[in-house]
Amino acid sequence: MHCLDKEHQCIEVLRSNLEPLNKFNQNWETYENEFDKKIHDILDEIESIGHDDHPMFYFIDPFGYSGFPMKTIKRILEYPRSELFINFMVHDINRFCEQELFKNQFIDLFGSEKFLDVNLSRNPEERQSFLLNLYCENIYSLTEAKFIMRFRINTPGKGTRPRYYLIHVSKNLKALKVMKDQMSKVSEVDYRFEAIGMDTQQMSLFDDPEKLKMIDQISFFCESHFPKNIEYGEIEDWAYVNTNGVSKTIKETLLQLEEEDKIHVERQPSQRKSTVTKGASIRSSKNN
To answer: Residues 202-234: pLDDT tens digits?
Structure first.
């Protein structure tokens, strides 16, 4: 584990907290340095000892909007088993992105000058949505990322007003599934986590108010394959990427669609009718 911070006081506090936790004398290092300066030294070292095919998880938690340029994100994602979790401080980015003084920093952040297209006539919510979508689209197009999931952290007492976003970026569907499962377990805390699928600009929640939306999304996906049967695993993979669903809610949705006679589920002889799981085959009942 490598921890970076440019503030001396932060590093001292971090070291004092990590030391008693490192009971097995693991390789936990702290560095007083800026992220974008030190991370390349660490990556060079990883390559030199032949560990570049090992699993790597990077949590980038900046104060503000600078210090993690797109070119560095690109390099990290060149490794075959790397994933990123980025704190995207959308409030600060929205506030300063049009100031000429910070233009070069934002070009580094987004990897292009397209952020300048943010329209002054947009309301704050539209501006934030534009900047968030642009950043995710640039990660997808400029790096080797295959899966991007945005989690909105709401401001307590302000409904769905975002405090900031956590963006998970990976090259493996399993990485996305594990992260989304873990985030769904803590979605009831004050800073509620909400998953937003990559293929939609609309809000998708883990919570019940959006259940009807996921029913429509999965029903439409099944209809789009009619009259072919779809394996449950294919539906689950699609729903993890494109909806707010996790395994439990995806299965609940399919059971409801089956009860409403909108889909037909063919189960293996050993499978219970009270669930839908791997091995089951689903077909839309759109002609009924």
So the answer is: 333 333 334 567 888 999 999 999 999 999 999
pTM of the model: 0.88
> Domain ranges in the chain?
34-206, 209-284
CATH number of 209-284: 1.10.10
- Label residue 125 by pLDDT band (50, 70, 90): confident
Q: Is 110 left (phi over 0), alpha (psi -120 to 50) or beta?
A: alpha
- Structure-token pair, residue 145: 């990322």
Using the CB atoms, write b or e for 184-203: b if 16+ within 10 Å: beebeeeebbbbbbbeeeee
- Structure tokens that stand for 235 in this block: 């539906």
Q: Give the closest residue to 281 by CA, choosing from 263, 261, 266.
A: 266
